[in-house]
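[step 3/7] fold_predict: job queued, chain A
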Amino acid sequence: MILGGLWAVCAGGALAGACGDGSGTPRERMTGSGGTSGQPVQPQLPQVVNLGGPVLTAPKVLPIVYSSDPGEGDILGFLQELTSTSYWSQTTAEYGVGPLTLLPAVTLTMPAPSSITDATLQSMLDANTTGQNPSWGAADPNTVYLFVLPQGTVEQDSEGACCTDYDGYHYETTVGSGAGAVSIPYAVSCACPGFDGPNVTAVQERTVDMSHELVEAATDPFPDSAPAYTQEDDADIVWTFVTDGEVADMCEFNDDANVVPAGSTYMVQRSWSNAAAQRFENPCVPVVTSTPYLNSFPQLGTISYDDGAGIISTQGIDVPLGTSHTIDVALMSAAQVGGSWTVDAYDYDQVIAGTSAGATLKQDAQSGAAGDVVHLTITPKTADSFLGGEAFIIWSDYGSPGAPDFESQLTMGLVTNH
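[step 4/7] structure written:
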């Protein structure tokens, strides 16, 4: 997650012209009753595109912790583990990010506040990275300054509040002035017990969030001034608006997003691999399931869509408000799967935005196996002003959560109402 989100950039910020991948016409996609050929083919999965900004080729992380935080030991133990296990390279190396170096922590001895703002955190960076404070060092654009807030300290400002709207974010700030000004990446991780569900412990919630933000800070360290891996290709632009578009965002809604990989002590969040997606393999890494990649793909055509910066061609379907259209959802797997999986379609507004559903979705089946087709009837009711239409998400879950063969995958669809 980045502070502010991508939509504000696409809708008229300084980088508005960069939104979309510039390809004009989407890549060849799977087709079916909503497409052109009538027969489904193996789909091309989304790609997270680089808008031209740098990644951190030699990343360092500087933890900034409070001495009163009882979880400090686990925080530093987890960060040290990130430098020695395969998780970091699995999630970042293909994007050009190098091995992670952990710097000695900055320990704040003052009492942790009950509330703090992002502006205050930026001011702390500006005041302490002049080079005069040895524990902070001089401002370094290759270092992610990680504020780890203890339980009871809430970061809150106009963007929202920790533990209510998010449990962490990353962004950038400029420290110093004039010729000595330096842009540096930073991240904020809050302690929000229960934020990731009842099966994630308080410690795991913190390590899941830190892994998410550090992976994104390394692959998109300057999301405002020089965005890198921050959104999806034009064909899959709906993923950008539903997930926020960065590599860890792309996997956070999977029911198996949070895992303890083999050889690790701490829980992490899985992250999107463009390379695995291109091979039609499980795109969220590390992969811990024994089940081959499987998913349920809505058969969509090509539509024109205003992404906030201009008109692009993308995958979707046009259904006027108050009318209905039925599409095929093709169930596919990369290799033979031993049984069926559940297929559940939900409206974006209802499950992500937390408002009333903009469309009614009806399925003729709730499960199936590879080669089967589920028919999904879409009836738009109200257009989401954020999307300029409606979006739906299809969850596919195989097996039982916690079992070695459990797998959870998503696909998405965009609906316009012309």
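[step 5/7] annotate
Helices lie at 7-10, 72-82, 87-92, 118-128, 202-219, 237-243, 274-278, 348-353.
The radius of gyration is 22 Å.
exit 0
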